[in-house]
Specification:
The protein is of the alpha/beta class. The chain has a single domain (4-254), classed as Ribonuclease Z/Hydroxyacylglutathione hydrolase-like (Metallo-beta-lactamase, Chain A), CATH 3.60.15.10. 26% of the residues lie in helices and 24% in strands. The protein contains nine helices and 14 strands. The protein has helices spanning 34-43, 61-64, 67-74, 82-87, 149-154, 169-174, 179-186, 194-203, 224-237, and strands at residues 4-9, 16-21, 24-28, 53-55, 78-80, 98-100, 107-109, 112-118, 127-133, 136-141, 160-164, 211-215, 244-247, 256-257. It has a seven-stranded mixed β-sheet with strand order 6-5-4-3-2-1-14. A seven-stranded mixed β-sheet has the order 7-8-9-10-11-12-13. α1 packs across α3 (67-74) and α8 packs parallel to α9 (224-237). The protein is globular. The structure holds zinc ion (2 copies). Residues 58, 60, 121, 123, 143 line the site of one zinc ion.
């Protein structure tokens, strides 16, 4: 089944990802200003009013900054956790509407289903998402402090995974952030390090996964080549050379097709999982 996505923005300057499949378009997060978000959609030929739903992972500004204004201007309903709704104070706002997404109760939008997966982050009810069109699925996870069993189980059949690879712990410790902020980022409800992602891909990445996009890299406490080297090394040690690793910066990516079958002669396509 068709499924593709493109990152429109990533990192502390603003996160948003467009996902398309089966004639449906959804946004995951709206952390860019509403005008910027609309312009980035229009620049790739997408009418903002044609977006069927906007899913919010959590209330932090770099994920939700443009949500209400975008919803109001283009008539796009928002969907997210009850905690996100409360933390954003949306009850008093006049906008296109808010649907509560319950953990593990997938929401259908046309032929797409979106499942909210609770993740450990210092926000009110934050979610990662698994977006599926039939048996083809994308796992999308930014802003979480550690890889939980719940997360691994939820992502075990994904054909593509976008995951944050926020920082290198040594760069973070040596950097000039205040200690309280370093503690927050390094903590179990903070952000995932390159090494955390390396452990996840070595032990928990689905056998079905062929595409891994590293996102939400810190501009101060990480380098793209450091993240890519760390994670590609972990994949190579597992013999997972079929997994393509890409990095998104603040400007996003081109279209990424999900679930493209492996070339003839290569194994793959099974749904066995590695136990975490
Ligand atoms: Zn963030
Ligand atoms: Zn956050």
């Amino acid at each position: 089944m068709s499924l593709r996505f493109r990152v429109l923005g990533s990192g502390s300057t603003g996160n948003a990802t467009l996902v398309e499949g089966g004639g449906v378009r959804i946004l995951l997060d709206a952390g860019l200003g509403p005008r910027e978000l609309a312009e980035r959609l229009q620049s790739v030929g997408v009418d903002p009013a044609s977006v069927d739903a906007l899913f919010l992972s959590h209330e932090h500004q770099d994920h939700a900054r443009g949500a209400v204004s975008f919803s109001r201007k283009w008539g796009v309903r928002i969907c997210g956790s009850r905690g996100t709704y409360a933390a954003m104070g949306l009850g008093a706002e006049d906008f296109a509407g808010y649907d509560v997404l319950e953990a593990d109760k997938p929401r259908a939008v046309g032929s797409l289903t979106v499942r909210g997966v609770p993740v450990p982050h210092d926000a009110a009810g934050p979610f990662a998402f698994v977006v599926a069109n039939g048996s083809t699925s994308l796992g999308h996870a930014t802003d979480f402090g550690h890889v939980s069993r719940t997360f691994v189980e939820a992502f075990r059949d994904c054909d593509a995974v976008l995951v944050e690879s926020n920082h290198d712990p040594d760069l973070l410790r040596r950097g000039d952030y205040p200690w309280s902020l370093k503690e927050r980022i390094l903590g179990p409800r903070g952000h995932l390090s390159n090494q955390d992602v390396a452990r996840f891909v070595a032990q928990g990445l689905a056998e079905t996964c062929r595409t891994l996009v590293l996102a939400h890299l810190s501009q101060k406490n990480n380098h793209p080549e450091l993240a890519q080297g760390c994670i590609e090394g972990a994949l190579a040690r597992r013999g997972r050379t079929e997994v393509k690793v890409a990095i998104t910066d603040a400007d996003g990516t081109g279209w990424v097709e999900v679930g493209t079958p492996p070339p003839p002669g290569q194994s793959g396509g099974g749904k066995q999982l590695r136990l975490f």
